[in-house]
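Now for one record.
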Amino acid sequence: MLNSLYIKNYRNLREFKINSLEQVNLITGKNNTGKSALLEAISIYASRGDIFQIRQLLEDRGEDIRQSDSENILASNVQSFSSMFTDRKIDFNNKNTISIGQPNNSVVMRFVQYQDEEIKDKQGHIFQQKRIISDEDERREYTEYNIGFEIAFSNLSRLFSLDSILFPHSGDGLFPRKKENFQFIQTKNINRKINEQLFDSIALTEKEGYVIKALKIIEPDTEKIAFRAGGEYSTLRIPVVKLSSVSEVLPLQSMGDGMNRILTIILALVSSDNGFLLIDEFENGLHYTVQEQLWKIIFELSESLNIQVFATTHSEDCISGFQSILNNSENPLKGKGKLIRLDNVNGEIKPVEYSPSELKTASDHNIETR
């Protein structure tokens, strides 16, 4: 679990620090104050800087510009990866690095210049090594060099060549295979393709009961859920539900965005044991009357499954439901959540943290917290 968070140079989060975090954290703020960027950064941290997670984020933002023409691969990759840096700045010194995490436990990313070298070991074997050009004097010695992208975590690093579509690994260090368990629900994800895989992993377990309980928030007659083949020419399976009040099985898609959104959130939640759940624009597809009940389930399961939750919102109803459950005496995590508002102060994104009692006071007196 993240007890605090420091982000440097990631998108519009030039120098950003949250001093303390809780088990359930709700992020608010006006447009372009970095709410989505904050969730992206946490997903990079949770993945230990996994290159495929990074490329997925770039693709989702329309920044993953891939070229089949070999002459343009380097330029397009540099353009794509520079979009993660504040002001899209590209240079090769240690000052212009992205850092995400906590002291002594951060993912660090940067552009580098490097040379391919041949090294001979004591047995006379020759192998290739990529050596990073680290200072200006050394750069002046070379008329040609390669451009790469280095990702470091703890005392290990990987160097990826930017002149390749597949980003072959240089071989200089391996990250631990085990990453933090996390699920990232983005704004457009009313219904994710991954839902059927997540359901398969929890079917016929106690967690399936949690899914049914959540769906009952909107449709109290929900008895069972399953995934069935979507059609003769479809490779996807679709979710179907059995209601106690209807004899036939119904496709979940026919029951509205709310049911599909709750299924997406609850499947992601129960699949994030001992990790993180990230939800962008929590309220999407959800009527205000169901949000408080969903927060109740999220608080309960984040406690029992040891999950740290980060969600963003623009909705006053979402904040109200969150506050109501957070300060409920029956909540097992009473006081173990907080609201964090992001403000743009002269071009710098700054967090304003609300404790449970401060959030209740703001709610009671209709003080704006979005």
User: Anything to note?
Assistant: The two ends are 25 Å apart (CA to CA). The first strand starts at residue 5 and ends at 10. Confidence is low (pLDDT under 50) at residues 168-174.
